[in-house]
Design brief:
The chain is of the alpha/beta class. The protein folds into 5 domains: 99 residues, SH3 type barrels; 202 residues, Tandem AAA-ATPase domain (Rossmann fold), CATH 3.40.50.10810; 215 residues, P-loop containing nucleotide triphosphate hydrolases (Rossmann fold, 3-Layer(aba) Sandwich); 67 residues, Dihydrodipicolinate Reductase, domain 2, CATH 3.30.360; 167 residues, no CATH class. Strands 12-13-11-14-15-10-16 form a 7-stranded parallel sheet, sandwiched between helices. Strands 17-22-21-18-20-19 form a 6-stranded parallel sheet, with helices on both faces.
Length: 934
């Protein structure tokens, strides 16, 4: 070969050297400088591991002056190559190879193959498999929902699928206590992130639930949220947290901009207006607010917390509000939360109250249609001849709050335990004579005591000690109203009664609360009982226990429901045993009677507790102060009103919402798709080949479980989500739910997502050379296996891959240019191809280089011919799907203002943008394999 000073060559023995330039040529030696690494290498001229770098028309090159060119022609002058191409200004530029950037990476399949860089056939197969799996996942209707460590409950999957696929979803998740709103929110957030619909998420929760959310998002969804508190913000920001001037010049480095996923306590912003300004100055794609019923609002005045969330809601495209009790503070407050979601739709409280009264009519009409009857008073715009299912869907779409509010009730969802009520009457001690002074003291007679002396004579304390010992070793959750009561009881149980216990109350730090909850959850060496103040009644899940002791009763039916809901949840495998000790003849007994015989709350959940309480509040408070003969009338009236209210909700709004909050047939189809994608054999085989390629130790652990460990011989210094201690993982959803110490590996686990991206973003497996023995084919015949994918450069938020996935195109071109891919599948070819040693492979490629280039040209033309109809079909499918949705929502908007104009505008924008990107899509050569017959 002829070496000339100034020529550019690459070393196929060490591609990391970058682009070399010949600086000296001697009769038997040649010296190259490699500017990228600052080294010179001298080789024997006859056996130098060098390949001349030759770009061709269509290649992209970069010069030392950072000029990017697309090559249009190549000429050779005095042994040096001259490249002519166009830059990004569409100007024609000619450069010598001397001017090429030394940091050039030889990564394209044709460059690597023709320059003698070959991969193992197993790596080639891994690349093909990666493309096939990604294409399959992009086509899946369950995309974004496969990776959660959750039971696939239909109502949760339906809501996550329905809401998660929306652009900038704005909804109220209002499932009753125990139905898993946190899981629904996590699934929605995960889907929005995985599909690119959202990138930055802010979650606001009560202070007491911070770490629970942090752990749940990580454990169930592999979402690493950053916890922002006062300490972190003081360290990372110069803003005075108490400065409430919204016009204050904020620092350039906003700490909220440093993270994509942020978790905060809403209390943090109430006390620190300066932090509010920082949060509002940052952009969020999706804001999540838990326990949204705590936001203070009335028709006369809104609280600072409500104003802050309203400002966030106004500037954030997506908003999720969570509450188990949507009307806990009344219908007006419920309206206020819906107004956060869509101020245009919910602009009048009076109009909203009128709509509420119409729900029963629409629910009865849907029931008629379901029964086969045709109502005469169908809403305008509905076709009476349409199928009943279609009419029901249209009624649900057009009326009510179904698009912005999802509410499943326990009555409609199976899987809940029975509630068993145990009354424990106790004598009222003389020392509590003061209990009649006011209602608070009557219900909580220990409150006036400034020390723990009441523990000695309160019969509930001795009863509690005896009951816990009788129930041992069963776990028991004890809830009382005040932190002082909880702390005193826990000290008594632990120090005097010798009962393993832990306290959970406001005075503890978040970490201390988590430790207490973990101590209670420990099956072997944990506490038998956890004594909680009222904060233990919200958010926390303790369904591993089934005994609940209510040391006192709250004067709020929804709080009582929240307390019981800590144990009465989906996943509870035993009846919930509710124990209520009370002082005979006291206000405690009166309140217990009202809850039990009036609302039947200890045996049946009630979603209208606050409304019922408001209706009878005056009469109830009078009886709590002094019980008289009118009490029985109060019980009878309450029971009748409760039964009527439950019936109205069941047949009215709740029933209408239930129809729209879980469509079983839709949920079943999505769950079936998720299950089909959980074929553990396919995933296990892919993971094994992935570990083999990257040098990760892969060891059998147990059925459907493996242990992965890093080694000193890994292809890269770091394998995604694998630390030095290794990882124990399972492919089984059931095992993952039972074994929290194991990672749950799915196709959407961050490790798999990052590893698959790593395969396709590097050159691993994109060039290979081998031999094959085929009868009837002359030795020396060349076959070229080419793998293309469709490359559509578009923002992830457009979701173009839904209509135009990777669509791998495989060709196997023979000596005559004929495609044999249909006759010889990739899997069969893999089993026949044999490796070739490096020297032989280099000799082969030098001899057949011209033939390879001609076959690549033929393959490229054939692939281009296949591409055209695929693009046409993709655009047609896109316009049909998005156009139908646009037409449906446009029609609905005429009768249901809950359809936001922003949704329609985004659909129109998305259709046009998708069409542009689909038309400009091209082919990307992913891999080449040269096969020579022997």
């Amino acid at each position: 070969m002829d070496y000339i000073v100034g020529q550019r060559w690459v070393s196929h023995a060490d591609a990391q050297l970058g682009l070399g330039i010949i600086v000296e040529v001697e009769p038997r030696r040649v010296t190259l400088s490699f500017p990228a690494v600052g080294e010179e290498r001298t080789y024997a001229a006859d056996s130098a591991p060098l390949t001349r770098l030759r770009f061709k028309a269509g290649d992209h090159i970069s010069t030392v002056n950072n000029v990017e060119l697309e090559v249009t022609s190549v000429k050779e002058k005095e042994g040096l190559l001259l490249y002519t191409g166009t830059d990004h200004h569409e100007q024609t530029v000619t450069v010598s190879e001397l001017e090429l950037d030394a940091f050039v990476q030889i990564t394209t399949p044709q460059q690597r193959l023709l320059n003698g860089h070959f991969d193992k056939h197993s790596d080639f197969a891994l690349r093909v498999s990666t493309l096939m799996q990604l294409d399959r996942l992009q086509r899946s209707s369950a995309r974004g929902l496969m990776g959660s460590r959750t039971n696939l409950l239909p109502h949760q999957v339906y809501i996550a699928n329905e809401v998660g696929q929306r652009h900038a979803p704005r909804v109220l998740l209002a499932d009753e206590v125990g139905l898993g709103k946190t899981i629904e929110a996590g699934m929605i957030v995960q889907q929005q992130l995985l599909t690119g619909r959202a990138n930055r998420v802010l979650i606001l929760v009560p202070q007491t639930l911070l770490h629970q959310w942090l752990v749940e998002m990580l454990r169930r969804f592999n979402l690493h949220f950053s916890l922002f508190d006062d300490e972190r913000l003081r360290e990372t920001s110069s803003v005075d947290p108490l400065d409430d001037d919204p016009l204050l010049q904020l620092p350039e480095d906003n700490p909220f901009d440093a993270e994509q996923l942020v978790l905060c306590s809403l209390d943090l912003f109430q006390a620190n207006p300066g932090y509010r300004n920082l949060a509002l100055a940052s952009h969020w794609d999706l804001v999540v607010v838990d326990e949204a019923h705590h936001l203070h609002w009335s028709p006369e005045q809104a609280g600072e917390d409500y104003h802050f969330v309203a400002e966030l809601a106004a500037q954030s495209p997506g908003l999720l509000l969570l509450t188990a009790t949507p009307e806990q503070v009344g219908l007006a407050s419920h309206f206020a939360r819906l107004q956060l979601l869509d101020p245009e739709r919910f602009h009048s409280l009076t109009e909203f109250e009128r709509e509420e009264r119409e729900y029963r009519r629409w629910s009865e009409m849907a029931a008629q249609l379901e029964a086969g009857d045709r109502p005469e008073d169908l809403p305008a715009g509905l076709d009476p001849a349409a199928p009943a299912a279609t009419l029901i869907d249209q009624i649900l779409d057009r009326h009510g709050t179904g698009r912005v509010m999802f509410r499943n009730t326990r009555a409609a969802i199976s899987g809940f335990p029975n509630r068993v009520m145990h009354r424990h009457p106790l004598p009222n001690p003389d020392s509590y004579a003061h209990a009649s002074l006011d209602i608070a003291a009557a219900l909580h007679p220990e409150l006036p005591y400034h020390d723990d002396s009441w523990l000695a004579f309160d019969p509930r304390v001795a009863w509690l000690e005896q009951t816990l010992k009788q129930l041992r070793p069963a776990k028991v959750l004890v809830i009382c109203a005040r932190a002082s009561t909880a702390l005193a009881l826990e000290h008594y149980l632990h120090l005097r009664a010798g009962i393993r216990s832990a306290a959970f109350y406001e005075g503890l730090s978040i970490i201390e609360r988590d430790r207490a909850a973990a101590y209670f959850a420990d099956e072997n060496n944990g506490a038998q009982t956890l004594v909680c103040s009222e904060i233990g009644s919200e958010g926390r899940n303790f369904q591993f226990a089934h005994h609940l002791i209510l040391f006192d009763l709250p004067l709020n039916p929804d709080l009582l429901e929240q307390r019981i809901g800590r144990l009465d949840r989906i996943g509870q495998e035993q009846d919930v045993e509710i124990h209520v000790p009370y002082l005979e003849g006291s206000a405690q007994e009166t309140l217990l009677e009202w809850y039990d015989r009036g609302l039947n709350l200890f045996r049946e959940s009630c979603s209208a507790g606050t409304m019922i309480f408001d209706t009878f509040q005056t009469r109830l408070l009078a009886q709590l102060e002094h019980r008289n003969d009118d009490f029985q009338t109060l019980l009878d009236d309450t029971a009748e009103f409760t039964a009527r209210t439950r019936l109205e909700l069941r047949e009215g709004r709740d029933r209408l919402l239930e129809r729209n909050s879980c469509k079983p047939e839709v949920a079943a189809a999505v769950i079936a798709d998720i299950r089909a994608n959980e074929d553990s054999d396919t995933l296990a085989a892919y993971l094994e080949s992935l570990c083999e390629a990257y040098g990760v130790e892969h060891e059998f652990h147990s059925d459907q479980a493996v242990v992965l460990r890093p080694t000193e011989h890994m292809l890269t210094g770091h394998f995604p989500y694998l630390d030095d201690e290794g990882l124990t993982a399972t492919f089984s959803r059931d095992k993952a739910l039972a074994r929290e110490d194991m990672a749950f590996l799915t196709w959407e686990h961050p490790m798999l997502v990052a590893a698959m991206d790593m395969v396709l973003s590097t050159e691993l497996g994109n060039a290979s050379l081998g031999t094959i023995k085929l009868r009837g084919i002359a030795p020396g015949t060349m076959l070229l296996e080419c793998l293309y994918s469709i490359n559509c450069v578009a923002p992830r938020s457009l979701q173009v891959e839904r209509f135009l996935p990777l669509t791998p195109l495989r060709l196997l071109v023979d000596a005559r240019g004929k495609d044999l891919a249909g006759l010889v599948p990739h899997e069969r070819l893999n089993g026949l191809v044999e490796r070739v040693n490096k020297n032989t492979a280099l000799a082969i490629i030098k001899q057949v280089q011209a033939d390879v280039e001609s076959k690549m040209t033929l393959a490229g033309k054939q692939a281009q011919e296949r591409l055209a109809p695929i693009l046409v079909e993709a655009e047609q499918e896109m316009r049909a799907a998005l156009g139908a949705e646009h037409d449906r929502l446009t029609a609905l908007r005429r009768v249901n203002p809950s359809i936001r104009q922003q949704e329609l505008d985004h659909l129109s924008y998305r259709m046009e943008e998708c069409a542009i990107h689909i038309r400009h899509a091209g082919l990307q050569l992913q891999a080449l394999r040269l096969i020579i017959t022997t």
